[in-house]
Amino acid sequence: MESWSIGKRWLVLGLAVALIYAMEPSPSPWLILFILLYLALDLTALLLHKTAYRNAIYGMMIVYCAGCAVYVNPEFVLLLPPNAYETARRVAPRIAVTVLLAIPLLFLEGPLSEIYMFIAAISLFDGMYLRHLLQRLNRQEEQLDQLRLDQEKLRKQLHGNREFIRASEYTYKLEERNRLSQELHDGIGHSMTGALIQMEAAKRVLPTDSAGAEKLLKNAIGISQESIEQIRQTLKNMKPPVEQLGFHRLRNTVEAFGSRSGLQTSVVHQGDLEKITPLFWKIIHDNVTEALTNTAKYGEATSVQVEVRVLGKWIQSVVTDNGRGQAKIVKGMGLLGMEERTAAVNGTVIADGTQGFKVTTLIPYVPSGK
Questions:
Q1: Taking the domains of the chain in order of start, what are their residue ranges?
Q2: What is the value of pTM for the model shown?
Q3: Which position has the higher pLDDT, 47 or 306?
Q4: Which of 93, 118, 94 is nearest to 12 (CA)?
Q5: Superfamily the domain 242-364 falls into
Q6: Where is each Signal transduction histidine kinase subgroup 3 dimerisation and phosphoacceptor domain found (predicted)?
């Protein structure tokens, strides 16, 4: 805005100087000095940071231009409109300035009055348009500040949610540990205590009653076997199913990749995930990780989708991005490694770069009952 205003004033100054040399037979020998003083005042106003000092300089420039128009060359009157409206944009009402700028028309004659009216009209329009732009700029800055505040609020809220999730996970772990401890104490602890009592009793009666001691030992052995089976069943119930563990790890990997790279990610599944063995999950996880790395390096994508499907005789894993793709697939170390891992279980990898980039892993499995 400031560069446009000073450029406009200097353009009018150049026009005034050209008119002086064109219309005056003998311009004043002090003309160059007056021009340099005007430029010095304009540059001084541009360099000052305090608004009050700048307004004072602009007021001095109006007085200076009026004095030069009266005592040096009347063409200096052309500088009054741009300087006056520049001051009006800061401190004075625009209507009052317009009325005051009409006064010189009482003393101007010929082409100079017409040029003066033209410059005054252009300066008025330019001032109104500049004011409109400044208002829009202020509104946009206010909106930007509000967006920053909203973003900071959302960031704090997200941070708070993450802390809440961490606290909830920790609380859940503590509750689960407490439940397991209580279950072992109430069930298995009591059973093992009973078995120990039976063995102690067998030890005492063994010298006098071998048949009774044998019976007590059998009871202790039975109680111990039941306790061991109870421990095995408890641990089995605690252990998550393979399909849940495999898909959970895969989703965490993809979501962590999205957080690091800034890409929008999604993970979906279809079919009976129980068909996917731990080995198959390992291959799917490694292939998906490699495909995501390639997307981040070369894909120039904004989103990536991971799909896991269990079909009739195949397990299918697909990684698709919306990047630039590649018409001719050049197999690097990453893609070759994916093919080797998948071939170890008689599977195959298909890469397609016609629309974005798509990597499909196909692993055969034998359906149950076949």
A1: 2-108, 242-364
A2: 0.44
A3: 306
A4: 118
A5: Histidine kinase-like ATPase, C-terminal domain (3.30.565.10)
A6: 176-242
